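Sat 14:20. Reprocessing the chain from the morning session after the first attempt stalled halfway. Input below, unchanged.
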Amino acid sequence: MVIGVDFDNTIVCYDELFQRIAVERGLVPAGLPARKADVRDCLRGRGQEAAWTELQGYVYGPRMVEAPAFPGAIEFFARAFRAGIPAYVISHKTRNPVIGPAHDLHQAARDWLAAQGFFDPAKAGLSQDQVFFGATRAEKIGLISELGCTHFIDDLEETFLEGSFPRSVRKILFAQRAPSPAISDVQVMSDWRQIQEYVFAVPN
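Finished this time. Tokens:
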């Protein structure tokens, strides 16, 4: 078994942070629900796509330290570490934002993982060389293949809908909703407890 895990919105939970910073900047009303998708839809609905893109760079960069991990995510990596099962973070993330200051998003992500204890052998046991960033979705999928993943966990259906996604990899969609009918053989899990029970219960 070799496990691959997406990073943004799969390991890291940004919902409250996006809403809080968007309110700070006067981009959305204070009563908007604390969900990233609601912030995005509000800004796009007002024709403020550029503001949304810049906000992402700011949140994923200098403010990322304020985001929590999803409950159970670090415990998942810890269990893989204890069991001797390779587990990788494989993310689709450009090094710098498309719009706005050139924050190093890769370093911000690595700093966040360190601060959360993912690189601590007493906690999750992840190493720096188990973290990969592909600048495009195609590069991310290439890494999934190159690293020999047997399972991949992602919050985005688009990853699994790519024609290049390896058919032999077990798809785990981290979501609160049913997947698109276009995705075949996908397991939908709403929290990391469910993911842990599924992944570590299935045969290698």
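The chain has a mean pLDDT of 93.
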